[in-house]
């Protein structure tokens, strides 16, 4: 699943989401149906994964992911200040790719599986390096 720098950040955020015990997705309201679809897909295709997905509407075009028990992430044209937050450079078009990664990893058994997320999953995430690749 890891091909480009953007794909690596998407995979990292998908892993963070699946490691969390719940998530709040802050968005402009246009993703409401897609978020519901993600919740249904995870229930259907990865029933062992149980966590809640809450949403909050904002006026920003950014999509912010607040993970419980895991570090956060954002889809945005501009990087966040904190290197603790994984940054996916882009806009709403990245949501579908992220959603696909979440479902595929969940179906494979992540986070309870060994090696199903690829070799990068066992390495520490280097957000500084990832951001340098985007400029």
Globally, the shape reads: globular
Integer-rounded radius of gyration: 14 Å
The oligomeric state is single chain
Major sheet characteristics: 5 strands, mixed
Q: In percent, how much strand structure appears in the residues?
A: 15-25%
Structural class: alpha/beta
End-to-end Cα distance: 22 Å
The number of distinct β-strands equals 5
Major sheet: order of its strands?
Answer: 2-1-3-4-5
How many structural domains can be distinguished in the coordinates? 1
Question: What level of helicity do the residues show?
Answer: 25-40%
Give your account of this protein's structure.
This protein has one domain (5-133). It starts with a helix and ends with a helix. The chain is of the alpha/beta class. A 5-stranded mixed sheet has the order 2-1-3-4-5. The model has no long low-confidence stretch (mean pLDDT 87). The chain has helices at 5-19, 32-45, 93-108, 127-133; strands at residues 22-27, 52-57, 63-67, 73-76, 86-89. It is globular. Helices cover 39% and strands 19% of the residues. It contains 4 helices and 5 strands.
Task: Give a brief rundown of this model.
This protein has 4 helices and 5 strands; from the N terminus they run H-E-H-E-E-E-E-H-H. With 135 residues, the chain is an alpha/beta fold.
Topology:
Layout: H1 5-19, E1 22-27, H2 32-45, E2 52-57, E3 63-67, E4 73-76, E5 86-89, H3 93-108, H4 127-133
Parallel strand pairs: 1-2, 4-5
Antiparallel strand pairs: 1-3, 3-4
Helix pairs in contact: 1-3, 2-3
